[in-house]
């Protein structure tokens, strides 16, 4: 049997969990990764070297590689806060930045490192440019810069991207549109709605490809609401916002977690951005003409609520094999 072609779109810490599980399956796997981060190590590097930020790409490279655990720990090693200019930088970010500078492109750097780490699959930054994410709030206020958005006390109406240096609309990296058009199944998330998923799909070429593709589109809904982004959101609200940004209802299937997060489990000091568990509104989901797969996708660890990558991957592969 030929491998079903699965494209996963997103960023942050959500999609690596699913990608790590999917790479063990009999699938042709592609990751399209957001490059709008301007905070922390990634923000400092993009300002200094003028490249697309490496942080989310680093996590995806590791997730899709079968490298030994010690090699992963080397790439994820974060310099101590007392280490001057190196403070807070993961070593993997510096390696990506160095290769990007050598080759004049983050896109080319990731292709080179994918071969270096023997990755069975493809990884593409959503754009090869340095991008700025803008959030327009319901009250008309606008915040520029991904790292600043959660700090404004208001409800986000919509987000959009510009190329940082020119203010122009961003252009998708090569092969991104081709991957979407050739996919059997496209997976959005899991991840922060406004700052990890939407920064990919509001790129005009990617948005248009999602309109045109014949692939089945699956959204993995978040388990917890997120401070400054999705406070008081139901699962149907997440889907509604995606459709509003896309301009049409294109999501075919939604995966929602049915397992309850135990009260007082969440470590609010460690995961202060997460608020409460996302409520279900199956009636509103059905009104958006999506299929609902409700199951136990919960993985409780380290005081946080995460997706069980194996359980999510199993559902995605089942969907892909039906296409």
TrEMBL record:
The keyword ATP-binding does not apply. It is found in: Cytoplasm. One of its GO terms (cellular component) is cytoplasm. It comes from the Bacteria. The keyword Cytoplasm applies. One of its GO terms (biological process) is regulation of cell shape. Keywords: Cytoplasm. It holds the Pfam family CofD. Required for morphogenesis under gluconeogenic growth conditions. This is Putative gluconeogenesis factor. The gene is yvcK.
């Amino acid at each position: 049997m030929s491998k079903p072609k699965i494209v996963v779109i997103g960023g942050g810490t959500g999609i690596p969990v699913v990608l790590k599980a999917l790479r063990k399956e009999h699938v042709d796997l592609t990751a399209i990764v957001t490059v709008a981060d301007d905070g922390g190590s990634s923000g400092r590097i993009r300002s200094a070297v003028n490249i697309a930020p490496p942080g989310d790409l680093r996590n995806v490279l590791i997730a899709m590689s079968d490298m030994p655990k010690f090699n992963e720990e080397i790439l994820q090693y974060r310099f101590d806060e007392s280490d001057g200019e190196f403070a807070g930088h993961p070593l993997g970010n510096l390696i990506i930045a160095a290769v990007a500078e050598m080759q004049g492109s983050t896109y080319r750097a990731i292709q080179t490192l994918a071969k270096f780490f023997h990755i069975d699959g493809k990884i593409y930054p959503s754009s090869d440019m340095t991008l700025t994410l803008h959030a327009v709030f319901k009250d008309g206020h606008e915040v520029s810069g991904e790292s600043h958005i959660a700090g404004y006390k208001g409800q986000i109406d919509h987000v959009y991207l510009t190329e940082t240096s020119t203010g122009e609309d961003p252009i998708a990296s090569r092969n991104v549109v081709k991957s979407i058009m050739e996919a059997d199944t496209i997976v959005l998330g899991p991840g922060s709605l406004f700052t990890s998923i939407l920064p990919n799909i509001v790129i005009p070429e990617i948005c248009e490809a999602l309109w045109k593709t014949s692939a089945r589109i699956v959204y993995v809904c978040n388990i917890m609401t997120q401070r400054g982004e999705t406070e008081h959101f139901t699962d149907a609200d997440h889907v509604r916002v995606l459709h509003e940004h896309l301009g049409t209802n294109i999501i075919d299937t939604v995966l929602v977690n049915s397992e309850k997060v135990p009260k007082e489990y969440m470590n609010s000091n460690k995961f202060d951005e997460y608020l409460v568990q996302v409520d279900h509104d199956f009636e509103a989901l059905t009104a958006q003409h999506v299929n609902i797969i409700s199951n136990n996708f919960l993985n409780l660890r380290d005081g946080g609520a995460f997706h069980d990558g194996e359980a999510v991957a199993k559902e995605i592969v089942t969907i892909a094999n039906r296409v």
